[in-house]
Every structure is written in C-alpha cells, then in structure tokens.
Amino acid sequence: MAKSTSETYSPCESCDRDTWHQVLYKHLYSEHDYRIDTIHQMLQCKGCKTLSFQKVIIDYESAYPISDDEWEVPKEIFNFPRVLSGHNKLGDLWDVPKLVREIYTQSLYAIRDESNILAGIGLRATVEAICNDQTIQGRTLDKRIDGLAKTGLISQRDAERLHAIRFLGNDAAHEIRSSTESNLITALRIIEHLLLTLYVLDGEAGGGLETIIRSPEKFLELLNKKLETFRTGEEIPLRKIYGKDIRRLHGYASNHETFLINEIINSNYTKLLIGKVDNYAGWKEKLQHFVVA
Length: 293
What we know:
Elements lengths: L1 E2 L3 E6 L4 E15 L4 E10 L5 E9 L4 E4 L2 E3 L2 E6 L17 H15 L3 H18 L7 H10 L5 H19 L6 H25 L10 H12 L7 E3 H5 L10 H13 L6 E7 L8 E6 L1
Antiparallel strand pairs: 1-3, 2-3, 3-4, 4-5, 5-8, 6-7, 9-11, 10-11
C-alpha cells in the first residue's frame, strides 16, 4: 500500500454530501488475463477530516468509443460506509429511548447497505417500538397508530404517513417485497420527523423553553416547587399557586386538578389538603381551593 498525495471528489458521511477528499493511501491490483484494475484507497474529508474507504473497479476490456479519438472506460465506485444520497442523518439521539434508537439505527444501516427488505421491516418495527414506549394500546399496529393521533402525540396527517410505513413493512415481511431506495428514504424521513417531535425537540425544549405540562409527574414536580413560596395554612386555588405558569396547564388543567384531588383523598399527596370551592380574585367561576399543609 503506497502513501498518496492526490485528491478525489467523494461522498462524506459526516458532511452528508460530496466533498473533496485527500487520498491518504492507495493500493492498485491489476489483472492481466482480463484487463481490469481494482483500486483500494483510504480517504479523508478535507473539511471534517472523517476517514472512509473506497474501492474503484476500472474495466478496460469493456471500454467503448464515444468519439473518433476518445474512449469511455466503465468504472464502478464503492464507498464504505455508503452515504445515502438526499438524506441528512439526525444529530444527537440521546433523548430517544435506547430500544427505539437501536431499531431506527439498524434500519438506517439496512437502507445504507441496500438490504431493502430488511429495511422495510425495520422501519415498521421502529413505529411499533415508539408505540410501546408511549404505552399506546391496541391489538394491531393500525389501531396503535390511530391511538398516537387520538392522544394528541401526533397529527392525523402524521398518522396517515405512519400507515404508509406500516404498508411498506407488511409488504416486506409477508410478501418479501423490496421497496425502492427513494421510498425507503422517504419513509426514513417520516420516522425521523416522529423522533424529532416526540423525543429530540421535547428534550431540547425542556432544557429552557416553557412547554405544556401534560404528564401528572411533571405537574407534581412543578407544584412542589411552587409550594415552597407559600405558608402553611394558606387556602388558595391552583391559579394562585401556579401564577403565570398556569398557562402551562393549557388543555390539561381540569385533568391535573382531578388527579391532584384523588391523590390527596388517597393520601398519596400530603403537601396540600382539599379546601373550599369559592370565588377568587374576581375570577368569574368558583374555583377549587387547596390548603397548604
């Protein structure tokens, strides 16, 4: 293997596009009975410095004329790892649950390695794993996808796209039917949009942006922090306790209040007692009050 100083234009996995690469090492093997050259070379992207390997097969025996004095020599180029044209991979996936992340990653590798039947099955399995993680009930995947939409986790349009992936996966598993790479990449983008919506963006927003509080656990977590500023014996409604942050209960305030009352009755929450139902600070409706314990 010889050290090289040449350059070549090649796909870069990290840059997600073709870039100029430095050829670090190059090995040439020539067959003489049938005139064909096989070149193995180690490349390094001149931008991000990512390393990759390339195999080039030059078939001189199959050359054909393209003009009076010029010939075209067929050449096949294989890059390792293979880069999916038109696909920009997701960045940080640490907020995605481990099992979901593993199935998604294996599906991505299957598409990259042109294992299209396995890729179709993997993408369908990724949807199934997401439903499991979100505890969506249903005997069949079509019911569970509809359940994702009914719970408000995704839109109806998103659900329709997931059904397309279900069809794709069913065809791969039951009819051993291979999808085209372009269809698989489209399905991959739908999956990635779902991962971004359910996990990545929620994780990033949770680090600074104020988001709607949907889960009882998050509701109690913020409630405990708010109660630190109130004195024992004060009788106040949730609107007073939460103050400006009451907006974060938008659409879930009634459910959270019912949950809190049940927790107090069952002695699972002891920082508040159930108080009167009365007017408060000019609010047009009577509000349930709670006594700080």
